[in-house]
Design a protein that fits this description.
The structure is a homodimer of 341-residue chains. With 341 residues, the first copy, chain A, is of the alpha/beta class. Helices cover 43% and strands 21% of the residues of chain A. In chain A, the strands form two sheets. In chain A, strands 4-3-2-1-5-6-7 form a seven-stranded mixed beta sheet, sandwiched between helices. A six-stranded mixed beta sheet of chain A has the order 9-11-10-8-12-13. Chain A is globular and about 65 Å long. Chain A starts with a strand and ends with a helix. At the A-B interface, helix 6, strand 13 and helix 12 of A face helix 6, strand 13 and helix 12 of B. Strand 13 of chain A pairs antiparallel with strand 13 of chain B, so a sheet runs across the interface.
Amino acid sequence: MRIFVCGMGVVGRAVCELLASRGPELRSRYGVPLTLAGVSDSRAIVLAGSDSAELDPLAVVAAKQAGKLGTMEGAMPAALPPRELAGRCQTLGIDVFVDCSPTDLKAAAVPTERMLAMLALRIGVVSVNKGPLATAMPALLEAARYNQVQLRFSGTVGGGTPVLATGSTLNRGETVTAIRGIVNGTTNFILWKMATERWAFDVALAEAQKLGYAETDPTADVDGWDAAAKVVILANAVLGIRATVQQVSVTGIRGVTPERIASAAAAGKVVKLIAGASAAGLTVAPQEVDAAGPLNTSGSLNAVEFTLSSGAVVAITGRGAGGVETASAVLRDLIDIGTMR
Amino acid sequence: MRIFVCGMGVVGRAVCELLASRGPELRSRYGVPLTLAGVSDSRAIVLAGSDSAELDPLAVVAAKQAGKLGTMEGAMPAALPPRELAGRCQTLGIDVFVDCSPTDLKAAAVPTERMLAMLALRIGVVSVNKGPLATAMPALLEAARYNQVQLRFSGTVGGGTPVLATGSTLNRGETVTAIRGIVNGTTNFILWKMATERWAFDVALAEAQKLGYAETDPTADVDGWDAAAKVVILANAVLGIRATVQQVSVTGIRGVTPERIASAAAAGKVVKLIAGASAAGLTVAPQEVDAAGPLNTSGSLNAVEFTLSSGAVVAITGRGAGGVETASAVLRDLIDIGTMR
């Protein structure tokens, strides 16, 4: 299976490293050979020389780290229009386009166009970029269905924790009717520090930034937009609700006060940023949840609860982020696509 | 896909009811038609009249509940030798044999022989009977591999909670190196009542029996054998450790005192019956675990933690038992087999 990796940040590089380190094992275990045939970052595209040539994933990582991706053999400027890039990928026999470019909900048009161009040429897509999914998932799913090609996105929710796979598995036996959970690690870390250390929001945010959990611009996390993107993906993938991020009612955690957290604690509750989806709608908002329940996760852990039509509840908990974990989710998607062919 | 359901207890009947109620939906959603072509209980076998005839699942359930399975058309005494039953199933075009007969680790020889006979004739097997798996899983897996036929057992661990599927999913991206968890709801209920109500073991056991969680003979649960069977299944299926129940070091919960529970509580811990599997071995024993962690589940809930080679830990929590949940796991297995064909 020939692969193009778009985006050479932490996740894209980790995917290349996993292709190098685990490729032979996965080939023998699942019968799926994974070959790197193209990569890109924001400035350059590097393509294999022919439809039987390949790129050395470790050489790509080394070039990227030395700032020399654009000088590799087969490199060209990144300013190729999406359809032209898709055409070149098709010529090179590329089977799956992996989008590891950074999520930006306000600039999702270009990556969305790129994915649609790939799907139209029946090139499968694995995305960890949440932008196109949050803003255009119904259209992307429809394009994949129409062109009978795979669109996968395990790494967008829960990182290495298989949240989406658990939802699909549950749907095969029963019907998942509602989802709620903690899908943003940064805000969980902040609320957890506010509760356990009795810090104010600003102090906890500064600590999260110091530890590298929160970006310098923490808007996507603390205002709830990262969680909103993820709840859109869960709603589409698991509940079959064809929504986009515009339909999510979003409240972030800036307004959560130490007083609210203290009065929750007095009632055996904790305040968490809860993403919820059901036929009643999609929401992201701080909510009081049972301190003894599975949603009271510490640190930056994620936790998602699925309610089934029988009334049973299944919860999954684990690390939500991390480049290696997310890259491992990409690998899982690639193997799933490879074993379905 | 033509199915034989062996065992007409709570689970077997629930499988028949689900075939009736969800069959049309599953057929349209996954393209897998599920047809009942044979059933049996401990006294009678009922077979469809030909390889194109079928049984009405609801008529089977009604006959069973009226004690009249043995008088249905196509009925014969259950004393058919395993190979002969397998031969008849083959003649009737049966694709999958579903074993819902009760687990008895001391009488696993007959159901094991039956499964091996089915696999030898390339009839797939879905089992919720843990006996054959606990005592002969390496041989069963080898028989399935050799005959290139499916052997599935989602319902044996976690009931409707997809514990085994989560392990397989995680293995596709990374490698699961260790598993530990609570896989027996009855003992969790007893230990939970001992901790929260400060009851002695005998009082909590009597309550569990009153509520229907524990059998009149509670040995399989409280002495750890049910958990031991499940840890064998997890070790074989997820870790690739070819063990049987003979290799598990098993300690039950009869020796857990209120004093031990109290001193654990004083240290922020709870005592749980923990099933563990790793390259170091398979164990079932009461252990102190962190009260704030995912293994501190209340009531009869199950919880299983998977440790990955990266060091990350993923936990899944949910109801462990229940006829409908287990039957839904059987349906999931049937769909998985049907969509692979």
